[in-house]
């Protein structure tokens, strides 16, 4: 595994309930997710955001969870089963350079891209891939950890997203993260 990728055992720390005190998934993502939606969770790890997303999309919705590391995906699947959410979650082990979601072009209603862009080798490739799979008018939330990603580095990520065709809709204020809400516009400029 490349050095910049979060080690699999860190996945257990990322799902600690304590994290919800400063990063509450339902509060953060609730405003953007509706029942019945198809949501993509990029770099889902063990599902800190995926399980709450599955509750938000409801029984007619779907959460497509992709991660590079099979151990993250295996634990996510176990947790989804225990939570009774396995029918709403589709998990995929992707590669470092592709989310392997080519079959979902224009199908995604919302993407959660939380603390993963800095681990991806080429963020411009990631943004282009996300642009392809989001439907027109769909939104995505990109957040990066303020602890080790500078404001200038985050600005580069946002510029790459704009370069791929996304428009900035809002700058949500999150504790410990830089964040941007992006939209795939109906009339690309
Ligand atoms: C810091 S963790 C964040 C996990 C989760 N989004 C969260 O906030 O709890 C980053 C995750 O992204 C995954 N990852 C790293 N590079 C990736 C890539 N190129 N494609 C997909 N996932 C990747 C890692 O395996 C890890 O599970």
Q: What does this protein structure show overall?
A:
The protein has 189 residues and is an alpha/beta fold. It has a single domain, classed as 3-Layer(aba) Sandwich (Rossmann fold). It has a seven-stranded mixed sheet with strand order 3-2-1-4-5-7-6, sandwiched between helices. Strand 2, helix 4 and strand 3 form a beta-alpha-beta unit. It starts with 9 loop residues before the first helix and ends in a 6-residue tail after the last strand. Bound molecules: S-adenosylmethionine.
Alpha plus pi helix count: 6
Low-pLDDT regions: none
Global structural class: alpha/beta
**CATH second-level architecture:** 3-Layer(aba) Sandwich
Give the names of the bound compounds.
Answer: S-adenosylmethionine
Give me the Rg, rounded.
15 Å
Range of strand content: 15-25%
Key features?
Rossmann fold; single chain; seven-stranded mixed beta sheet; alpha/beta; globular; binds S-adenosylmethionine; 189 residues
List the helices and strands and how they pair.
Layout: H1 10-14, H2 25-29, E1 38-42, H3 50-57, E2 62-67, H4 70-82, E3 89-93, E4 108-114, H5 123-133, E5 134-145, H6 151-164, E6 167-170, E7 177-183
The protein binds S-adenosylmethionine.
The gist of it:
This protein is of the alpha/beta class. Helices cover 30% and strands 24% of the residues. Strand 1 (38-42), helix 3 (50-57) and strand 2 form a beta-alpha-beta unit.
């Amino acid at each position: 595994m490349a050095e910049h990728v979060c080690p699999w055992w860190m996945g257990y720390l990322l799902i600690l309930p304590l994290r919800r005190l400063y990063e509450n998934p339902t509060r953060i993502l609730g405003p953007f997710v509706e029942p019945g939606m198809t949501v993509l969770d990029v770099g889902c790890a063990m599902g800190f955001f995926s399980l709450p997303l599955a509750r938000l999309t409801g029984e007619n919705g779907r959460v497509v969870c992709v991660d590079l590391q099979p151990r993250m995906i295996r634990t996510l699947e176990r947790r989804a089963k225990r939570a009774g959410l396995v029918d709403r979650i589709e998990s995929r082990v992707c590669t470092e350079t592709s989310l392997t979601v080519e079959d979902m072009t224009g199908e995604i209603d919302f993407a959660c891209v939380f603390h993963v862009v800095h681990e991806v080798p080429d963020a411009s490739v990631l943004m282009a891939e996300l642009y392809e799979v989001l439907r027109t008018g769909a939104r995505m939330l990109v957040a990066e950890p303020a602890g080790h990603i500078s404001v200038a580095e985050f600005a580069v990520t946002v510029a790459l997203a704009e370069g791929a065709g996304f428009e900035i809709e809002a700058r949500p204020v999150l504790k410990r993260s830089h964040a941007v809400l992006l939209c795939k516009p109906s009339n690309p400029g």
